[in-house]
Amino acid sequence: MFFLKQNIPRWAIFLIDILIVMGSIFLAYMVRFNFKVPQNEMSQWTIVFSIILVVRAISFLISKTYAGIIRFTSMQDAVRIFIVIFSGSALFTITNLISYYFINGHFVIPFSIIVIEFMTVILLMITFRIVVKIAYLEIKNPGGSKNKVIIYGAGEAGVITKQALDRDLGIRYKVIAFIDEDKNKVGKKLEGVDIFGFDKLETLLTENEVDNLIISIQKLKPEKKQRIVEVCLPFETKIMTVPPVSSWTDGVLSYNQIKKIKIEDLLERDEINMDVDDIKKELSNKVVMITGAAGSIGSELVRQIINFDPREIILIDQAESAMFDIEIELQEKYPNRNFKIAVADICNKVRMEHAFQVFKPQIVYHAAAYKHVPMMENNPSEALNTNVNGSKIIADLSVQYGVEKFIMISTDKAVNPTNVMGASKRIAEIYIQALNQKSKTVFITTRFGNVLGSNGSAVTLFRKQIEKGGPVTVTHRDVIRYFMTIPEACRLVLEAGMMGKGGEIYLFDMGNPVKIVDLAERMIRLSGLELDKDIKIKFTGLRPGEKLYEELLNNEENTLPTHHSQIMIGKVKTYEYKTVQKDIIELIALFNQQDNTDIVRKMKTIVPEFISKNSVFEELDKNIE
């Protein structure tokens, strides 16, 4: 129990190491002379003993081999001991050679003694530390009560993961197997643990009550993760992942950094290849303004764009607290990059014009918008003011102040809109496309579906509900949505912005649609909970303005391919600028009246395909008919 209460004092470790050296010298002489040391050799005993002991002691003090905490002994400690002992033995060898060839023709220390002592000291010093570590672990974590773990990946990352588990003394773990799909590794051992093929995973889970499976491979393909999850979930085995090396503390992985796998990890796709050089040419040494910079998409655009060496990034958002957070993040991660924080409302033309005058942006990414469908269905005037009027203000100022490119972030809900939010975004698209016809500024629109983990997204909501114990609320059993991770959406935005010539609406390959109820069920199971036993799913009915499925193109539209397989150009209806301008000015003028019915009626005249669903505004469609 002594080891459980305190660390072994450094002086005690140093003393033990010295005793090991003394014993190794004695053993070297015994082995060398078959336990019968000749009398003439005994006369040299004192000299040899003193030389080796003094050199070892000095080397231990210089290298501080005694300073490590024994119960946390790692491979690095063993390597350090080897280097220190090898250096001392190399010194003995050099001394021997100098003595033999340049002094008296005799060896100071017999070479056989040097070799045997070298091997013995290394073996005993490392063994001592391992024995102490194992004893401590066994006392702290009795073998029978350890959580059983399988590590997926029998490479360097797998070894580091196992070592991290061994070092973590607060939680009981025992790695019972490695899984790897490299046939050359299967059947062998790693760190004393058997390596199995993926085909044996289900058998291992059946025969052992495995608590955790840890995916150690950094860039495992999403479909592989899906396969692993499908095998593990029926056994209630928790799946965890090792974070990127860049997030390790001082380059060392700790157990606390190993997290449960997230639904985002399963829905992501293969990494998107960007034309990094072309994007850098586009953004390098430019002043880039990002509206909605504190939001999910806006903040990720900031993180990605800052790596392309812009002259300056201007962050615009009215969310003070969120802006403070992103400012602190940028100061910590990018202390040498130029960025400016401007807390501002895009609907305030005076404030925004001042921003354009002061910062003189050359490229604008317009991500600021209201996006929650039910909220905007109940507040049409705010959807009008921010999504239409705010977008118009930023677009007009971009033309006025000679912005080179304007990239707007739109949504799949702008296609055949069934709600005010989608209609407001479609109107903004129409205005920006029309404005492109009469300006030198290149206007580009990017349109994609839901992003995983964004503020207020289904994933974020489900996660909070699961943490509270449920129920998890789903609007309808048949609702499907397209999902994309925030980083990949932003990568495609940068790519589309780079290739755009003006007036295009770029559509992103959103992958396969996902049933929301399946998403909820998967998240519940990944949390280690049992559906209908630990937590329930509650169907609440479609919300105002919501439809069962989203589209990226309306029925009259088609697409053209681009050089990027995941980006297409939508062939959409074009509008004459003067007509659009007149309609939108009339629409914006309705804001002051605060009559939601009049606002929505005008929206429907601008966007004839806007047919309300699950909304009080369905009456307006009946009147049109």
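(the above was protein one; protein two follows)
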Amino acid sequence: MHNKLFEIRQRFDVRMFILYATVPLLLGLLLFQIMRLQWFDHEKYMLQSEQNRLNLVPLLPVRGEITDAHGKKLAINRIAYRVSLIPERIGHPDQILDVLAAMLAWSPAKRARIRKRILRARRPDRPVLVDDKLHWNQVAPLAARLHHLPGVDVTAGSFRQYPYGELTSHLIGYLSLSREHDIDAGYLPTEFIGRTGVERSFESILHGHPGYQREEVDSRGRRVAVLQRTAPIMGKQIQLALDVDVQQAASDAVGNRTGAVVVMDVHTGAIIAMLSKPGYNTNLFITGLESQQWQAWLDNPEKPLLNRATQAAYPPASTFKLVTAMAGLQHGARLARGHTFCPGYLQFADRRLRCWKRSGHGRMTLHSALVQSCDVYFYKLGDQLGMAAISDEAHEWGLGEKTRIDLPPEARGIIPTHRPYMMAAIKDSQTKRKKWFRGETMITAIGQGALTVTPLQMARLAAAIANGGDILKPQILANQPADILHHVDIRPQDLHKIQQAMRGVVTEPHGTARRVLSHAAWAAAGKTGTAQVVKMSQHDNKKISKTDLLRRNKDHAWFMGYAPYKKPQIAIAVFIEHGGHGGSAAGPVAAAVINAMARKQVAMAAH
């Protein structure tokens, strides 16, 4: 019995010893933790507490507006409300999205698109834009219930609007929400960024700088008070050289046809009009384009997203005869200062190269060949010159190279060369060849074959002929000094011959543009062109109707020139895709542009 009591006592003493040893140790650990929290890590946890209590909200800047040369608004900002949310504060996304969809009347497709945007957010602590361009009566019920929706916010802001829509779509461009690479570059997830046109090229000027608002929030992330506010800096307004009235006149003249019109100041390179048809509604991009609409544009055979003025290159047809003629004069070709006979064809080996006038033009000089656009004359002149001389002359006048306009992307076009020749459009190594044939030189001399140019390049060529040989960089902004990329060293008497022939195209009895341009408000000079196209069979594309197939088999129509003839102000290039004859299809558009410019000058003088 005694031994048993001793064992119990011993076990009790051990337990008490462990207790006496553990309590001070635990108290020491507790004291150490208190000291660590109060002294050593005080600043760290104070900062975390402040971060939980304070919220830094970015304030988006108002984008700079865009106007034309006379102050007409091309891109403006409208006051509206936007709804955003911070993903890490909203709890269950689907529940919140159900509430927002019901209150803001979202379609199922829109709800799905916004849900995907939230799930893809790289920074869950940053706001994600879920709706925009809202009126107060749309957001008022939501704003009254924000205390039940932590992480959701309604703010006043602005949205972009393009008053002229399709008329200026390719030049002005559009905006869209920032993407991952934009966020990496410093943009906020809720910001809109220029994607094409002027909006893209001058993004750094138009965008502005964001501000910030420091807010105090409660434990659920709801705003309690605004502690500090740094106002955003508005983007700068820019003024374009574009005259929207001239643009409208060109659009009206083109009508429902497909094509491009470029009007350029011959002395400064200022772009007075740049039209590409068909266009597209840039306003649809602001809050996220529906995939069906985007796909419809992509599937449209007329390619409304393509800027035909700068991105599309076509055979220049007879407008290129001006380059061939200048090459003949510069290189002293015998035919350039002599004459030949056109019977309506040129017999070349076992082939007949036809002139557009089957009955022939008769006796042709350089002047009459340009006025009447005789193919046979230029077949022979091209053969005398050789491809090297023609290619060098084309490059000298700015063809086959980008114009450097501040409107990427831009097509370069193709100027074939004989040394060694490879078709730029052919990528199959089995079909590449290095031999250049005389017949190809003849075809190139009249602007056909592998040769391609853009309407902008042809407008610049017309400007250079008018101003004495200055190759200008096209200027989009207003009041910019001339940027002469280089000067063509052409003899004044030779250039005068070209100018006289271009005037004869409009005034002489057999001139190819006389009927449509001889009565224009300003005396004009120019050159027409009719570019042959590869004929399509009805089996080539079963989706094309018979009527559309007939239209697509028609030739392309060109006109390029300048006005007034004696004191040039503007250069013009008109391209009508599958328009037919250059004089009858493209000439009237040039006349409409000239008349619009003349009316504008009279109106401005009256004021």
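Reviewer note on protein two: Residues 5 and 11 are 10 Å apart (CA to CA).
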